[in-house]
Q: What sequence folds into this?
């Protein structure tokens, strides 16, 4: 199975500032035949199910604010929240879907400083 | 609006069985690939398995920890997904979510609210 490792485990950011979460996979998530990275990001607020934010490493799901962006390729990926809002307090998970079983990172908790 | 509503969770003894249901609405259920994911409260996410739509064979696949113990099925006439869980262990205690895949690629676009399963004597 592909192992997904996120860093940091938690971070505190001031409102309006940038939050950056990293995700590293144990194998490449880039398929050469379509040049796509099989990496998604989810947001989970307290007491709620996860919500899909980004797939193909950088494609925002419909309705997701543009302050959320994804980048990276191969084995190293980043989720950036450009201007943190109070409603962004949550745990964020990366997920690889390059091979079965799909696997998730351990999560990164984002709080307000 | 897409809605997924899980039910059937509860307290069960080790070695026991439980069947979870997931009722879908607001989308063409028969056209959806469906997955089950679980989460130990306060911990991370674990994909358990999925079932393809009938037009692609309706076949299933499972993660290793549950293969042979859990069975995923669907009744498209009732817009309902099922998870039959047998030989339950204490480590199966978790919140169980159903989720949809739009394109059969393991990207989980919509999630239910989850149902809690507690395995304890």
A:
């Amino acid at each position: 199975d592909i192992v997904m490792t996120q860093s940091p485990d938690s971070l505190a950011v001031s409102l309006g500032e940038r939050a950056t979460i990293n995700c590293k996979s144990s194998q490449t998530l880039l398929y050469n035949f379509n040049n796509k990275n099989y990496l998604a990001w989810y947001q989970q607020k307290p007491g709620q199910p996860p919500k899909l934010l980004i797939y193909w490493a950088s494609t925002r799901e419909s309705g997701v604010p543009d302050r959320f962006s994804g980048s990276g390729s191969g084995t190293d990926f980043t989720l950036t929240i450009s201007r943190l809002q109070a409603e962004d307090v949550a745990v964020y998970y990366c997920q690889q879907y390059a091979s079965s079983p799909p696997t998730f990172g351990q999560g990164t908790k984002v709080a307000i400083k | 609006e897409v809605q997924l509503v899980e039910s059937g969770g509860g307290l069960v003894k080790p070695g026991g069985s439980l069947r979870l249901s997931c009722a879908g609405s607001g989308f063409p259920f028969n056209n959806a690939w469906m997955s089950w994911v679980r989460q130990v409260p306060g911990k991370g996410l674990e994909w358990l398995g999925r079932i393809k739509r009938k037009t692609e064979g309706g076949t299933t696949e499972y993660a290793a920890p549950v293969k042979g113990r859990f069975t995923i099925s669907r009744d498209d006439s009732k817009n309902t997904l099922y998870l039959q869980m047998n030989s339950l262990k204490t480590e199966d205690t978790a919140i169980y979510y159903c989720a949809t895949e739009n394109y059969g690629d393991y990207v989980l676009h919509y999630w239910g609210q989850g149902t809690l399963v507690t395995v304890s004597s």
User: Anything to note?
Assistant: Chain B touches chain A at residues 44-47, 61, 63-64, 97, 105-114 (CB under 8 Å). The mean pLDDT of chain B is 97. The radius of gyration of chain B is 13 Å.
